[in-house]
TrEMBL record:
Domain named CYTH: residues: 2-202
The organism's taxonomic lineage, starting at the top: Bacteria, Pseudomonadati, Pseudomonadota, Gammaproteobacteria, Enterobacterales
UniProt-listed InterPro entries: CYTH-like_dom_sf, CYTH_domain, YgiF
PANTHER family for the chain: INORGANIC TRIPHOSPHATASE (PTHR39569)
Species this protein is from: Scandinavium goeteborgense
One Pfam match: CYTH
PROSITE patterns: CYTH
GO MF annotation list: inorganic triphosphate phosphatase activity; metal ion binding
Name this polypeptide is given: Triphosphatase
Annotated coiled-coil segments of the chain: none
Length: 304
């Protein structure tokens, strides 16, 4: 089992070349773009999803790998969850090769292998930069392509930073260096999450009322998730979502005020900047706002 730790960003589509220039300027080992095709599987009654499990086969250069991801945690755009990777001889599931600890009852359900079927796919080109920062090894992957489910599809235009080994603080530091160009925003929705939504019919996402109250870290995490969810809606054309972004930012500001006065003052500035923004794109990709979200993510993950 591996513990996957990734920080995900959405790349502004017109800013891909700007970002690539930044990445090429790093002291890094460059890996040219290669196509990755992924098929995600599910049962008719969503058994895997209901158990917070994700199952896929990835194909690359005639080689295949089966991956099972199980319950993890997302803070801001930082994803941390266990994953199990099994090499395959061909693009066919082999659930019996997964260790018993993967399964909720400690054993492979007898009928599951016959019940899982392809649900959606992702097809993208991945270009990589391998960076050493302090004592950490970090992979920066630029992914360009599509996620597809039936007649529905969405573009993939993302940058993923994966901590191969080392400290989570280092991946946050590297990310901070990339925000100044104004072409990145943290993304809490994984490719898989978007694929499941498309496969379910691609219903319009709705504005949600805030459900955070007490000014503790759990509420701050919920407020950050609320901010990111409604920022996504705002970018997709739902103007009403802007008010919920501002509600989340104000809650974060007030929660930080007693013990973190400087951070609270910064959040007040973020609220003003979002209020003044004439469109979602200007707010979402503004370096000042992107850095504030990353700062909050770092605080929630590391306590600093």
């Amino acid at each position: 089992m591996d513990q996957e730790i990734e920080l995900k960003f959405i790349v502004e589509q017109d800013g891909v070349e700007t970002l690539r220039t930044q990445l090429n300027a790093l002291s890094a080992e460059h890996v040219p773009a290669a196509q990755l095709l992924n098929i995600y599987y599910e049962t008719a009654d969503n058994w895997l999803r209901r158990h917070d499990m994700g199952l896929r086969i990835r194909g690359h250069n005639g080689r295949y790998e089966m991956t099972m991801k199980i319950a993890g945690k997302v803070v801001g755009g930082l994803h941390s969850r266990p994953e199990y990777n099994i090499d395959l001889d061909k693009a066919e599931l082999a659930l019996e090769k997964l260790p018993a600890e993967v399964w909720p009852e400690g054993t492979l359900p007898p009928e599951l292998a016959s019940q899982v079927n392809p649900l959606f796919s992702t097809d993208f080109y991945r270009e990589k930069w391998m960076v050493n920062h302090n004592q950490s090894r970090i992979e920066l992957a630029l992914d360009l392509g599509d996620v597809k489910a039936g007649s529905h599809q969405e573009p993939i235009c993302e940058l993923e930073l994966e901590l191969l080994h080392g400290q989570v603080e280092d991946i946050l530091e590297v990310a901070e260096q990339l925000l100044s160009a104004g072409v990145l925003r943290q993304g809490s929705l994984s490719k898989a999450a978007r694929g499941y939504h498309l496969a379910a019919g691609n219903a319009e996402r709705v504005v949600k009322k805030a459900d955070f109250t007490d000014p503790d870290n759990a509420a701050l995490e919920a407020a950050l998730a609320h901010w990111q969810y409604h920022e996504e809606l705002w970018l997709r054309g739902n103007a009403k979502a802007k008010a919920e972004v501002l509600n989340a930012v104000e809650f974060i500001r007030a929660s930080l005020q007693r013990d973190h006065e400087m951070a609270s003052a910064q959040m007040a500035q973020i609220g003003d900047a979002i209020s003044a923004a004439t469109n979602a794109k200007d707010a979402a990709f503004k370096p000042q706002i992107a850095q504030a979200k990353l700062m909050l993510t770092a605080f929630l993950v590391t306590g600093r």
